[in-house]
Design a protein that fits this description.
- It is a multi-pass membrane protein.
- One of its GO terms (cellular component) is plasma membrane.
- GO terms for molecular function: xanthine transmembrane transporter activity.
- It is found in: Membrane.
- The chain has helices spanning 13-38, 42-59, 75-85, 88-112, 115-120, 123-135, 138-143, 169-187, 196-210, 218-224, 236-241, 257-263, 266-285, 290-312, 321-330, 335-349, 352-359, 363-387, 395-409, 423-437, 442-453; strands at residues 68-70, 149-154, 157-162, 317-319, 413-416, 419-422.
- The chain is mostly helical.
- It has one domain.
- The radius of gyration is 22 Å and the shape is globular.
- It starts with 12 loop residues before the first helix and ends with a helix.
- 49% of the residues are buried.
Length: 457
C-alpha cells in the first residue's frame, strides 16, 4: 500500500485478506503463549480474541482500529489462583470481574473525565506494578521452563540444580529460540520486526526437529526431569488423534470471592496500559479517539471483551501494541481490515489439529521466548517511570516504588476476614494508598507546576 487507508475505508476483499493476515500473524504468537503458560486452551484464546475484537469494534462504533489479544498481566494471578483453589475455572471468575472493573471505570470516565485516574494511578505506582508483572514470572515461567534448572529429590526435598548448558540439548533449544527472537527484535525490518515472537517460536520448533530431539532417548530426558514433569517435544498421538475441524474446548467459570478479589484489581494496571495504547494509536492515525468515540467507549469495549473471554475459558483481553505497529508500518488504519483479522482468528480456532500442534510446543521453546517477553514487560515499567520523569531522589517516590516492588515480587500475602490478598493485587492496593497518603514535597510540587506551564511539554 502506497497511500494512507483511513479508519472508515473498505478495501476490496483480495486486498483486505493479506492485510488482515498480517494483523493475525502479529498477534498470534503472544496470544497463544498466555494460555499455554496458564493452562488454558490456545484455540479458545484465538476464538475469544476474535470475538473480543468484534465486540470492541461494535462498542466503539467502528471508529477505533485496535486488535485485542491475551493480556500478560494476568498470567501470575491466574496460575496462583488456579493452584490455590484447585482449578482454573475459579481464576476465570476473577477474569470476568476484571472486565467489570473496566466497565465501572468507563462509566466514571464518562461522568467525570480522566483527571482522577492520574491522581490515583500516577507513574510512580503503575511503573513498579508493571515491572512486577515481568519479574514475578521470571523464575517459574521462564528460567525453569527454559531448562536451565533441573529438579532433584534429596532427603525428601525437591532441590533445583543448575544444568550444564553444554551437555543439555534442552538448553540448546531454549537459547537458540531466545537468540532468534532477540536478533529479530533488533535487526528485522518492516513487517517482520513486529512478529519476532512468532518467528522465534517457529524457529525453536524447527531447531528441535533438525537436532532430532523429537526422537530423543526417554532415559536422557528423565535424567534432566526425574519427576516426570517434562513435556515431550512432539507428541504425535495428540496431533494424530485431533480432528481437523471442531469446536474449541471451552472452559466455564466457577465463582469464588477470593479469586475475584485476587484478580479483579489487576484491571487497574491494564487500564493504564489500555489508555497508553490508545494515545499511541491517536499519534499513528492522527485522530483523537479519546474524544470521538471517547475513552469510555474504548474501555467499555475492552471490558466486555474480557468478560466474554472469561465466560468461555479464554484469558483477559487487552489492546495489542504489535497490531499498532503493523498499522504504523502499513499506513492502513481501516477497522474493516481489523474486523477480518478477528474473523480469521475465529475460523482458525476451529482447526483442532492446529490447536494440538500449539499445545505440544516444546517447553524450552516457550522458555526461551518467555525470557525475552517477561524481561521486556519488566523493562517497560522502568521506561514508563523514566519517560514520565519520576524523580526517585525524592524520598516519597523512592518509598512508594520500593514497597510496591518488594510486596509484588516477594508474593506477600495478607488476609482480611478469610479473604486473601497477595502479590500484584496487594502491591497495587498498597501503592494507591501510599500515593494518596504520603504528602508531596514542596520541591516536587514546584517542579510539577513548572512542567505544567512549560509550552514544550
Amino acid at each position: 500500500m502506497n497511500r494512507i487507508v483511513q479508519v472508515e475505508e473498505k478495501l476490496p476483499f483480495l486486498k483486505t485478506l493479506p492485510l488482515s493476515l498480517q494483523h493475525l500473524f502479529a498477534m498470534v504468537g503472544a496470544t497463544i503463549l498466555v494460555p499455554i503458560l496458564v493452562g488454558l486452551s490456545p484455540t479458545v484464546a484465538l476464538f475469544t480474541s476474535g470475538v473480543g475484537t468484534i465486540i470492541y469494534i461494535l462498542v466503539t462504533k467502528n471508529k477505533i482500529p485496535a486488535y485485542l489479544g491475551s493480556s500478560f498481566a494476568f498470567i501470575n494471578p491466574i496460575i496462583t489462583v488456579s493452584a490455590s483453589l484447585g482449578g482454573k475455572e475459579y481464576a476465570l471468575a476473577g477474569c470476568i470481574a476484571s472486565g467489570v472493573v473496566y466497565l465501572i471505570v468507563a462509566f466514571l470516565v464518562y461522568l467525570f473525565g480522566t483527571s482522577w485516574i492520574d491522581k490515583i494511578l500516577p507513574p510512580v505506582v503503575v511503573g513498579p506494578v508493571v515491572m512486577i508483572i515481568g519479574l514475578s514470572l521470571a523464575r517459574a515461567a521462564a528460567v525453569k521452563s527454559a531448562g536451565l534448572f533441573k529438579e532433584v529429590i534429596k532427603d525428601g526435598q525437591i532441590l533445583e540444580v543448575a544444568v550444564n548448558v553444554l551437555k543439555s540439548p534442552v538448553c540448546w533449544v531454549s537459547i537458540f529460540t531466545l537468540l532468534v527472537a532477540v536478533f529479530g527484535s533488533v535487526y528485522f525490518k518492516g513487517f517482520f520486526k513486529v512478529i519476532p515472537v512468532l518467528i522465534g517460536l517457529v524457529s525453536g520448533y524447527l531447531f528441535a526437529y533438525v537436532l532430532d530431539l523429537i526422537g530423543m532417548n526417554t532415559n536422557l530426558l528423565n535424567s534432566f526431569y526425574p519427576n516426570g514433569k517434562y513435556i515431550p517435544f512432539l507428541n504425535y498421538e495428540v496431533i494424530r488423534n485431533a480432528k481437523w475441524l471442531g469446536l474449541p474446548q471451552f472452559t466455564f467459570p466457577k465463582f469464588s470471592l477470593s479469586a475475584i478479589l485476587s484478580i479483579a484489581p489487576i484491571a487497574i494496571v491494564t487500564i493504564t496500559e489500555h489508555i497508553g495504547h490508545l494515545l499511541v494509536t491517536n499519534n499513528v492515525v492522527g485522530r483523537d479517539f479519546t474524544k470521538n468515540p471517547g475513552l469510555h467507549r474504548s474501555l467499555a469495549g475492552d471490558g466486555l471483551a474480557t468478560i466474554a473471554a472469561g465466560f468461555l475459558g479464554g484469558p483477559p483481553n487487552t489492546t495489542y501494541g504489535e497490531n499498532i505497529g503493523v498499522m504504523a508500518i502499513t499506513k492502513v488504519y481501516s477497522t474493516w481490515v481489523i474486523l477480518w483479522a478477528a474473523i480469521l482468528a475465529i475460523l482458525l480456532s476451529f482447526v483442532q489439529k492446529l490447536g494440538a500442534l500449539i499445545q505440544v510446543i516444546p517447553s524450552p521453546v516457550i522458555g526461551g521466548i518467555s525470557i525475552l517477553l517477561f524481561g521486556v514487560i519488566a523493562s517497560s515499567g522502568l521506561r514508563m517511570m523514566i519517560e514520565s520523569k519520576v524523580d526517585l531522589s525524592q524520598t516519597r517516590n523512592l518509598v512508594i516504588a520500593s514497597v510496591v516492588l518488594i510486596i509484588g515480587v516477594g508474593g506477600t500475602r495478607l488476609k482480611f476476614f478469610n479473604i486473601e490478598f497477595e502479590g500484584m493485587a496487594l502491591a497495587t492496593f498498597v501503592g494507591i494508598i501510599l500515593n494518596l497518603l504520603l504528602p508531596e514535597s514542596k520541591e516536587l510540587k514546584v517542579a510539577k507546576a513548572k512542567e505544567a506551564l512549560d509550552p514544550n511539554n
